[in-house]
Design a protein that fits this description.
Blueprint: E1 6-7, H1 26-30, E2 40-45, H2 48-53, E3 60-65, H3 84-101, E4 102-112, H4 121-128, E5 134-142, E6 144-148, E7 154-158, E8 173-180, H5 201-204, E9 219-221, E10 225-226, H6 230-233, H7 242-252, E11 259-262, H8 269-277, E12 281-286, H9 289-299
Parallel strand pairs: 2-12, 3-4, 3-11, 5-9, 11-12
Antiparallel strand pairs: 1-10, 4-8, 5-8, 6-7
Helix pairs in contact: 7-8
Length: 300
């Protein structure tokens, strides 16, 4: 995903100072009096296509990743500029390996963003993969939003990268494509559930079963937190928040994720999410030595 100079939820915090946002989901699971499961990490400095080719077929339950977008982002090692056709062929190549190593009941969450000058890129990738996977859900990751309340007060939340243009709007969202092998994989919709705004719906809708909890839907507001020193706090030009990967794990179902894979590890936010959620084994590939070293440092 496209990076901003903001802090993600992965930064170390003292247990007594955790924010309320972090006391949800997987993080709550880890601060119980019981010892959390210990995640086994297999992090490799290796091209992901070659690395995945050495994994057994039907090996992982969940894949969460965000590849380079071919938008000219300055990575340490990878060249993020290819001609369009070559880039899409490469996407199909690594996606085919993801398809091979993923179990039939698995989920593949692919975070993809765009640029105002290249708005069709996420859709072109989804179309390129349509013979490899079934697109089961399209999720909109909202990074910044302004809401008008009932008193007509405007409140802005989150962060975005301003665009100086007379033609384009500020880009405040990215896509998360949820791919599966057959499009028929059950998910834990209420793992990310939210209360009903109109409480009468609890009794009105039979599927509520008397609970004040509904499906969040396919818009996920996951803002960055502010960072002070980018080089130290997030030394990578493009990374999604840890919470995004946590939500993907929860949506697929924490108890169903024994092995998780990220082919484009970066500095390890997906690995930290796996650690917080108690995933038994995590596999990650990264070609940049400095990014891989940072990922290993962050998981301890």
């Amino acid at each position: 995903m496209i990076a901003f100079d903001k802090q993600d939820a992965s930064q170390p915090r003292q247990p007594g100072r955790l924010s309320s946002a972090l006391l949800s989901g997987c993080t709550k699971h880890l601060i119980t009096p019981h010892s959390p499961p210990v995640t086994e990490f297999d992090l490799r400095r290796e091209d992901c296509v070659k690395g995945m080719s050495r994994l057994p077929s039907e090996h992982v339950d969940l894949v969460v990743t965000s590849p380079p977008y071919n938008l000219g982002i300055r990575y340490g090692t990878f060249s993020d500029r290819q001609d369009r056709r070559s880039y899409l062929r490469w996407c199909r190549e690594w996606a085919a390996q993801v398809r091979r190593v993923m179990k039939p009941g698995g989920s593949f969450f692919l975070n993809i963003g765009a640029a105002p000058s290249n708005p069709m890129l996420p859709h072109e990738i989804a179309i390129e993969l349509r013979d490899v996977f079934v697109l089961q859900n399209t999720i909109h990751w909202i990074k910044s939003i302004t809401i008008e309340d009932q008193e007509t007060n405007l409140r802005s939340h989150g962060h975005f990268k301003p665009i100086n243009s007379k033609r384009f709007l500020n880009d405040c969202h990215e896509y998360i494509f949820h791919f599966t092998i057959d499009g028929k994989i059950d998910i834990n919709r209420l793992a990310l559930g939210v209360p009903y705004q109109d409480k009468s719906n609890i009794s009105r809708w039979s599927y509520a079963r008397g609970r004040d909890l509904r499906c969040r839907g396919n818009t996920w507001f996951i803002p960055y937190e502010t960072i002070q020193r980018r080089a130290k706090e997030r030394p990578h030009p493009a990374t999604f928040p840890v919470q995004l990967a946590e939500w993907c794990i929860k949506l697929h179902g924490i108890s169903r994720v024994q092995k998780m894979l990220d082919p484009f590890l970066g500095i390890g936010n997906s690995a930290i999410a796996a650690q917080r959620c108690g995933v038994k084994k995590f596999i990650g590939f990264e070609i940049d030595e400095s990014y891989l070293a940072e990922a290993r440092r962050r998981i301890g």
